[in-house]
Amino acid sequence: MDERNQSIVLEFVLLGLSNSWNIQVLLLMVFLMLYLIIVSGNILIIIVIFTDSHLHSPMYFLLANLSFIDLWLSSVTTPKMITDFLREKKTISFGGCMSQILFVHFIGGGEMVLLVVMAYDRYVAICKPLHYFSMMNLHNGIRLVVTAWAIGFVHAMSQLIVIVQLPFCGKEIDSFFCDIPLVIKLACIESSNLGMLMNGDSGVLAMTCFILLLISYTYILLTVYKSSKTGASKAFSTCTAHLTVVVLFFGPCIFIYVWPLSITSVDKFLAVFYSVITPLLNPAIYTLRNKEIKCALERLQNYFIETKVNILLNLI
Q: Which residues does 93 contact at the CB level (< 8 Å), separation at least 6?
């Protein structure tokens, strides 16, 4: 490319979710409240799982990692979005934009693989219960989690290496954070083929994990249904919670990267959904349907109450 046509961009302008000041104030309050719930809810799950000895099993170790990923995924974009509601000009530096791309795809890719690992954990627990502790002990759980993080990192770096070298002519991003499809459109080159390649990279990972998840849960339900209708009811309840998380997370990703609709308002809604709504719903879906976590929360609450009572008695 001719050097004269290349442009060094130091920052990008984020157009955000709305141009109306009144709507932005309303969105500020809504998303601030949601983000505080996300942070407190996911941190509470992590604390409960790691402090309660009854929950020291591979399944809850994976659930704690899912909460950590959701907490991090939301924190990559949501605080910036919230502070931008207070600014007339919403800008992000070139480095900050590239960092958002890196971490969104690093964490998002890691979560996709982690959900597959969680499906494998349920498959072993339900279909091969006698071999569960030999196949899914804590060491194997750690290896699988590290594998999920590694795949997410490789996926993100493969995207970033291409994007960071592009010359940019445009600066306005019609969203509240930097994402690959939007950033590629600002490049000083014909971007349609590159956009398809980058979306294909994300699409292959998303669809591979999604298909593996559907196969896993289908096999679980069919296996248990054949052996015991009572067991099938319990397995169906467990799998329904997991499948709800899968659909909520993979649905927006598929429509953004695999089957893009190219409708700005829809793209913004989907981006909000997987970066804010999904991390908000995941703790609720897993905790409200899980008796052991409910009991652990009660034990933690009773512990703090007893501690306060003992402190007051000592003061008296």
A: 10, 11
CA distance 146 to 233: 33
How many Cβ atoms sit within 10 Å of the Cβ of residue 49? 23
CA atoms of 297 and 118, how far apart (whole Å): 22
Check: CB of residue 198 under 8 Å from CB of residue 184.
Answer: yes
The pLDDT tens digits for 206-240 are 889 989 988 888 888 787 777 665 555 666 666 77
pLDDT tier, 29 (very low <50, low <70, confident <90, very high otherwise): very high
Tokens at residue 270, please?
């989907």
CA pair distance 39, 72, nearest whole angstrom: 9
Q: Classify the C-alpha dihedral 81-86-88-89 as positive or negative.
A: negative
- For position 3, what pLDDT does the model report? 45
DSSP state of 167: -
Residues 112, 114: Cα–Cα separation, whole Å: 5
How many residues are present in the chain?
316
Token pair of 177 as six digits: 């954070």
Asked if 235 and 224 touch (Cβ cutoff 8 Å), the reply is: yes
Rounded (5°) CA angle 105-108-110 = 105
Structure tokens belonging to residue 216: 């896993």
**Euclidean distance between CA atoms 83 and 314, whole angstroms:** 45
